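Researcher: Here's the sequence for the chain we discussed earlier.
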Amino acid sequence: MNTDVAAENPSALSLWNDPTAPVAARVDALIAAMTLQEKTAQLSGVWVGASDEGGEVAPHQHDMEEAVDLDALLPTGLGQLTRPFGTVPVDPALGALSLARTQARIAASNRFRIPALAHDECLAGFAAWGATAYPVPLSWGAAFDPGLVRRMAAAIGRDMRAVGVHQGLAPVLDVVRDARWGRVEETIGEDPYLVGTVGTAYVQGLESAGIVATLKHFAGYSASRAGRNLAPASMGPRERADVVLPPFEMAIREGGARSVMNAYTDTDGVPSAADETLLTGLLRDTWGFDGTVVADYFAVAFLKILHGVAADWADAAGTALHAGIDVELPNVKTYGAPLTEAVADGRVPEELVDRALRRVLTQKAALGLLDPDWNPVPAALDGTDPDDPETLRGHVDLDSPENRALARALAEEAVVLLSNDGTLPLGRPRRIALIGPNADEPTAVLGCYSFPQHIGVRHPGTPLGIGLPTLRETLAAEFPEADITHVRGTGVDDGDLSGLEEAVRAAREADVTVVALGDRAGLFGRGTSGEGCDAGTLDLPGAQQQLLDALLDTGTPVVTVLLAGRPYALGRAVTESAAIVQSFFPGEEGTHAIAGVLSGRVNPSGRLPVGVPRAPGSQPGTYLGARLAHANEASNVDPTPAFPFGHGLSYTRFDWTDLTVDAHEAPTDGEFTLAFTVRNTGERSGTEVVQLYLHDPVASVVQPVQRLVGYTRVTLEPGEARRLTVTVPADLASFTGRDGRRVVEPGALELRPAASSADPRLTARVVLTGPERHVDHTRRLHATIAQKPATA
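Model: Thanks. This is the structure I predict for it:
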C-alpha cells in the first residue's frame, strides 16, 4: 500500500503498534502501510562501530563495501545494526549508550518508529571489549557437558541483552569433516550427535536470555574440498542428510533457535545462498522453521562475484530472496536499490519481499521493538545519567566473577589427558623447564573470534580488556617451590630454531620439561588456526616438531601441552612423551585449568571431540568412516588415529561390569533397555564419560562402522559405583535409505557402552524385528540414560 492510501486508513497504522493485538495482524497491517523502499529497508543493515565517547555509532568501512550514508538511509528505516560492539574497542557502558542514542535516532527518523535489530558475534563469549573469553566450541565438545554449556550461553546472552544487543551469531553447528579446515576451532567436533546436543544446549541458553540464536553455517561449509575455506563441498545427499543436517534439525526442534545463517559453500554446484530446496523446502516446509534466515556476510553479493550464478546485484538479490534469505548482512548492498528497482520493474515479485519482511517484523514484534513503550535505553544503563558519559566508563562489567567461574569450570572439564606414563600429576618437582612458543603468550588461549584476536590485533595500543594469565604465570602459582626456567625455543610458525640449543640445555638441567605448543588464532592467514587459516597438512606449524623431537632426545621426561584450534600429528611424542595434555583454546581461565591438571588439583575428564591423527597426511578422516575408510589391506595408507574420538584419561580408574539387556529383540518402532555398572576403582574422585555407540553390521546402504548415539558424565568417589540404565529407541538406528527417505530396518545391531570410539567396554547384541519403518524429523533423537547408586 502506498503512503497516501495508508494515510487514509489510520487504523492500519495504529494496529501494528498495539501489543494486545495478534502479532500476525500487527505485522500484516504494518506491511500494508509500507512503501516498497520502506519494506526493503528492513531487509538489510549497516555495519557500525559504537563510540567510546558515548556518541552515535559510526558506519564501519569494509573493503567489500562502499561508504554508507546513514542520513540518506534512515528516513525509510533500517533492519539491522551489524556488530556495534564487535567492530572497535569500546567501553561497554559507553558502547551501550552509543547504541541507545543511535537506536533513538533510527526510530525517530522513520514513519513507523521502528528501531533496528542489533546483532553481534558470540562464538566463545560476547565478542566485545572487556567481555569474558570462554573456551572455544571445540572445548565445549571436549567437555561432553551440555548442561554447563547451556549455563555459559545463558550468561553470554544476559550480558549481550543488558547492553542492547538482540541477536547472536552462534553457535556453529558444522561437523568436522577435515581437520585441515581453519575453522575447526569454531566447531564442536566430528560427530553429529555430539555437535547437535552441545549446540542445542548453547541455543537454549542464549535464547533463555532473550537473544536470538543464529545457527551456522547451513549447510555443508565444513565439508569443503581439502579443508579449504569457501571451497566447493564434496558430498552426496546421504552424507548431508545423516552427518551435516542433524545438528541443525535438533537445534531448531529442541533448542528453539530463531535464526539460521547460510553457508558460503556450494554443494554439487548449488550455493547454499541460492538453494531453495535447502532454505525453504527443507528448513521451512519440512522442519517448520518460522524464524529468519540471514546471509553470512556478503554471501548474497558472492552469488555474483564468487559463484557466478547471478549476472548483477539485482539478480543476486532476487536469487537469494527466492531461495529463502530474508536479511542481507552485514550491509545494504543488493537488498537496497538493486532489489527495489528489480521489484519496481517486475524482475522480482514483491510477494518475495513481503514474505521476508513478514518474518523480520514478526521477530521484531517478539523482541518488543514494535511496542509503543519501547525504550532504547538497555537494562545496563538503568539509573545512569546519559548526559554525562564519562561517569559511565567502567559502569558495566562484562567479565564478572560469575562469568570467570563458568569459564574456568568449562576449561577444566575440557582439558584432555591423551597419554600418561605416570609422570602426571607432577607432585613437587624442584626444577621445571617450561619451553615453547605458547608457554608465555597471553593470547595462546584464545580463538579467532575472541575480541582480542579478532579486533584487538588491529588496535595494538589498546589494552586486552581482560586478564589472560600465561601458562608460565599459572605454573609458577601452582608450583611455588619449583625453580621454573622458561625458554621460547621457537615461534608458532616462524621456523626459527635459534633458541633450540638453549631449550635443550634447560631441559637437560630440569627434573621435568613442559613444552607448550600449538596454534596462534587469527583471520585469513594472520594465524595458524581460524577463519581462512587452513592447513596443508596436520604437521605442527613452523619448527615446533623439531623443537619437540630435540627435547625428547634429552632424556628428561617431557610433558607435551597443546593449546590449539585443531588436532595435530605429534610424531614421536605419541609414544615417547611422558604425558600429552590437549587443550583447544581454553579461554581466559584456560591456563589455570592446564596447570591444575599438571599438578593434580584437577582430575582430567575431557574427551576428544576430534581424533588426533597419527600421520600428518591422513586427512580427510573421521571415526565415522565406513569399513573401507579404516585401515585395510587395499591401501598402504593407515588412517588410524593416534588417539581416537572420545578418548581421554583420568588420574583414577573405572571398571564397567554387569551388563544386562531387558529384551534382545524389539520391533522397528520399539526400544531396547540395557543396564550396567560403572565403579571408581582408583584412589581419588573422578569423572568417567560414558559413551554409547551403535554398530549396524548389515544395512541396505553402506554405514559407518559405528556412531555415537548417547553419552553422559558419571562422577564417582573412590569405591563408589553407579548403575546406569539406558533406553535406546529404534529410531536411533535410522539412516537415509536408497530412496532418500530415512528408514529403520530390521536386523541385528550392536550397542556398545564405551570409554571411547576405540574402547568398547561392553557389547549388547540385539535384533530389530518386523517391517521396515520410515521416520521423519519428528523421530526420537535421544537415548535416555539414568543413574542411581549401585547395590553391593
